[in-house]
Design goal:
The protein is α/β, with parallel strands linked by helices. Helices cover about 50% and strands about 20% of the residues. A five-stranded parallel β-sheet has the order 2-1-3-6-7, with helices on both faces. α1 links the parallel β1 and β2.
């Protein structure tokens, strides 16, 4: 054995307990044992002694092996249980095996005990390995089903989101070739630019989706201020950006260790969403960005006073290609990518929103502020 075996003996006779120990010591087995002879002692030993195997006599003054086996299966189902008794009928022994005992031996013939223990432990390990393999397979099947479903949706939606702006540009080009009025031509150019921007947004989301799915997490020190500033700089020419008032409150005295690429993707998508879906009827469109870097987590919150999301739409906003508004921009992958990136980082995201009032995203991501990555 790789470690000392812990054997719990349910036995009321001290001499019989000594005989069990002598038999096992003679076989060269490395073990420690504990004897109990009542229900209360048995329950306490299951909790404190944590046996690897249980050897039980059948009949004790106020307890028996049938009840002991039932308790074992209820509290420690992976612990092998072997009946070691004086004399029982074959019918009783067979019934114990049916109830879940791994084996039974007579006290008058203990030479088989070491092999019985070895076989019982190997069998239980094999069963535990099978159970774990089934769980792993179930998780893999669930993930594969998810991937296949997403792939079908991905192919359909992306082909539409790519073709629509391309066909729009082709149509506008044909119109512009026939048009002689420069004012109309400029209008066609403006419309083509809008279609090309939609195409570019779709391609960007597709690239982010692919990279997030395939790229391993790269842990390093993250400058959260720089990530936010870089994203704000990239988005400054986005329609509506100049009209939205953006404030930042960042507490980053502690070092943040995470994946800077995924943190950037999360911030980019959430900030750009706040700009896209600002409320043009409000006099003072705003976005508040709050970051608090703590020892174990970083907390990120983005609050806007935009158009908001209707309550019945909230459960679906993180679905692939789902859009909760008629404003159709990009591929509808933004919030899906945000959630996938956060889950890759073992984090969580919550959203609160009220239609026509605004939206708040609250994110918690582990801060792996240790030296093990460096």
């Amino acid at each position: 054995m790789e470690s000392t075996l812990r054997i719990l003996c349910l036995e009321d006779q001290e001499l019989d307990f000594d005989l069990l120990n002598f038999t096992l010591e003679a076989s060269g087995l490395e073990f420690i044992s504990q004897r109990v002879d009542s229900r209360e002692e048995y329950l306490e030993a299951l909790e404190s002694f944590k046996p690897d195997i249980i050897l039980s006599d059948h009949s004790l003054p106020q307890f028996n092996s049938t009840e002991a086996l039932r308790i074992c299966q209820e509290l420690t189902p992976n612990t092998p249980f072997i009946l070691v008794t004086g004399a029982v009928s074959d019918e009783f022994a067979v019934n114990c095996i049916k109830l879940g005992a791994m084996d039974y031996l007579l006290k008058s013939s203990l030479s088989r005990l070491p092999n019985a223990i070895d076989s019982a432990l190997k069998y239980k390990k094999s069963e535990a390995d099978k159970t774990e393999a089934v769980k792993t397979l179930a998780v893999q099947n669930e993930e594969l089903t998810k991937i296949n479903t997403e792939l079908d949706s991905f192919v359909y939606s992306v082909s539409h989101n790519l073709r629509a702006p391309l066909m729009s540009v082709l149509g506008l080009l044909n119109l512009a070739q026939e048009e002689k009025d420069m004012t109309a031509i400029r209008e066609y150019h403006k419309m083509m630019l809008t279609s090309i921007q939609k195409l570019d947004e779709t391609l960007k989301e597709i690239l982010d989706y692919s990279r997030n799915a395939r790229q391993e997490i790269q842990y390093e020190t993250v400058d959260i201020r720089k990530i936010i500033d870089d994203n704000l700089s990239r988005l400054q020419f986005m329609p509506g950006f100049q009209s939205i008032r953006i404030s930042q409150t960042i507490k980053d005295e502690l070092k943040l260790v995470s994946d800077p690429y995924r943190i950037s993707v999360i911030m980019n998508n959430l900030i750009s969403n706040a700009v896209k879906y600002l409320d043009p009827d409000k006099k003072d469109p705003s976005l508040r960005i709050l970051v608090n870097v703590e020892k174990e987590h970083v907390y990120i919150q983005l609050e806007d006073n935009g158009i908001g999301i209707e309550r019945d739409q909230l459960p679906r906003i993180f679905n692939m290609f789902y859009r909760a508004t008629e404003r159709k921009e990009g591929a509808g992958l933004g919030l899906y990518i945000v959630k996938e990136a956060i889950e890759k980082l073992k984090g969580t995201i919550q959203v609160d929103s009220e239609f026509n009032k605004g939206t708040a995203f609250r994110i918690r991501i582990p801060n792996l502020n240790t030296q093990e990555f460096f």
